[in-house]
Amino acid sequence: MKCGALFLLLAFAAIVNARVPVGSADPEGDLWVVLVAGSYTWFNYRHQADVCHAYQIVHSHGVPDDHIIVMMYDDLATSKQNPTPGQVINRPNGPDVYKGVPKDYIGMDVTPENFLKVLSGDAAGLEGVGSGKVVKSGPNDRVFVNLVDHGAPGIFAFPHTFMHAKDFSSTILQMKKDNKFKEMYVYMEACESGSMFQNNFPDDIGFYALSASNATESSYACYMDTKRGTFLGDVFSIKWMEDSDREQLTKETLLEQFNIVQKSTTTSHVEQWGELSLDSNTVSTILGSKTPEGVVDPVIPSHDPCLNSSVSSPDVPVAILQSNIDNAANAGEAQMWQKQLIKLHENRNLVNSITKKLAIEVTGDGEMAQEMTTDKHHVITQWDCYEQAADAYNENCFNLGENPYALRAVHTLVNLCEHGHTASDIIAATEKVCTHPHITEIH
Ligand SMILES: *[C@@H]1O[C@H](CO)[C@@H](O)[C@H](O)[C@H]1NC(C)=O
Ligand SMILES: *[C@@H]1O[C@H](CO)[C@@H](O)[C@H](O)[C@H]1NC(C)=O
Fold first, then answer.
1. Cβ neighbours of residue 382 under 8 Å, at least 6 residues apart?
2. Do residues 307 and 336 share a domain?
3. pTM value?
4. Which ligand minimizes its atom distance to the CA of 269?
5. What does the alpha-carbon distance between residue 213 and residue 242 come to, in Å, rounded to a whole number?
6. Do 191 and 250 fall into the same domain?
7. What is the C-alpha separation between 34 and 186, in angstroms, rounded?
8. Which of 51, 321, 351, 424 is paired with 138 by a 20 to 30 Å CA distance?
9. For the CA atoms of the chain, what is the radius of gyration?
10. Which of the ligands is closest to the CA of residue 271?
11. Which domain holds residue 374?
12. Do 240 and 368 sit in the same domain of this protein?
């Protein structure tokens, strides 16, 4: 090349470079990744295992740690129930996915408030909290968010509290107004996860999401591990991540991935939301475009060991305790698990009976109350009433983060609101009916 031509090229490169926003490595914009597991305890192993695996995927595809923010309780590696201390796996005999995962926000710092601050780039609001890392995205950037936990209509749970659908969507809509992303992609694993997106996001703001389940059904766990006594993954999460491990991400489109995941997640309805034309982008758009080094170890089983051990999320604790009973080393151990199983059913009955009482208190009618507690098919339209009712139920009756089973009862609040009962009537009823002592860990 002649010197003149080289000079011109350099000058041109400088001009192009000058137009790149500060903090952005290329004119295509940066990729930011936020990974959140919202649960804790051994029963919920699978959620943090999924998120650790997601980290390994984006890490191996070249997304640097300063562009990845991880929130997880981090109680698995050191749990006394962990037969392989310091390690977490996401499929039977699979590799350790815990190694190298940044501990940006752990324990009590895993909250919806902190998550929304991380997402919207509120560094000042997180000063002195965890690593303080936030998404510093600009108008050219892409953001990928993977959330994994328990859910309920309009609710995504966190270890000691929960996030309302409207707080989630309004934060993202505000980010759009503030020019904080070109495109945002969300993959969410939770029961009723469709309800977090339904009617909450426009289809023209560069927002695209997949939910593990529709608005009114459970999501499913899989890979029961009898040695660890817990499930290692969730079906939707396993399906999109094992597909990502297998495919060349710069070639596969998001639509192709959606089709594979939807078809292979036979346990629930995986759904797409938002601006669907974004699915013509490649998967590398959201997970990174570098070719991973070393062997990615693709499991392509002839029969599907995830699906053949899948269990709906609410049934997971019972399945775990039953497996522990069946696999106990001796009669004493079996008896211990048996006791826990009995206690679990007692606690679940408490949630059901108190919620029923609440419905009777509000409706003044036993038959109506029965309908309110059994019908699960309402689309939420009375958001204000439902948010206030859920807050009161969380405050006065059962903490929805600490008692995953109570999430199975909040559709009753949806129904009461949709049938014209007011938030103040429901709040008053929670104060009257929920007089039991504070209780946690109703799984
Ligand atoms: C959601 O899933 C449930 C359970 O699988 C099903 O009965 C229902 O028809 C589905 N609803 C929609 C809107 O797809
Ligand atoms: C599921 O598949 C695995 C092999 O991957 C097999 O060992 C196991 O027995 C199967 N479980 C069931 C319940 O079919």
1. 417, 418
2. no
3. 0.91
4. 1
5. 18
6. yes
7. 9
8. 51
9. 23
10. 1
11. 328-433
12. no
